[in-house]
Design a protein that fits this description.
This protein is mostly helical. 88% of the residues lie in helices and 0% in strands. It has one domain (2-105).
């Protein structure tokens, strides 16, 4: 059991956490870029980008909604990236739960 916990710790520290952090930053920039393209050409584009940077979680929901309205489909390029990031988050959280369970058994 100790080897499994050590392996999970190594995986999370070398791959899981860095990948989750880098993908979160990438999704944050992608949210701002998508917000810029969804707003009509005017000065409001820059306001949308600034708000997307200041309020990332709210911006992801708002941009997902307006991206859905603009594309006419709930499955679009933006929502696929958000769902992929949520899947990665779920995997990391599950590995944390498995590590905790294994540590309690040893």
């Amino acid at each position: 059991m100790r080897k499994a916990v050590t392996g999970i710790n190594a995986f999370l520290s070398r791959i899981g956490y860095p990948l989750l952090g880098m993908s979160a930053v990438g999704l944050h920039f992608f949210t701002a870029i998508t917000a810029y393209h969804l707003v009509d050409p005017s000065g409001w584009r820059f306001v949308a980008v600034a708000l997307a940077f200041v309020f990332p979680l709210v911006a992801e929901v708002v941009v997902a909604f307006f991206s859905w309205k603009a594309s006419g489909s709930m499955v679009n390029s933006y929502s696929v990236w958000v769902l992929a990031w949520l899947l990665l988050l779920f995997v990391v959280l599950e590995l944390l739960a498995i590590r905790k369970r294994l540590a309690q058994e040893s």
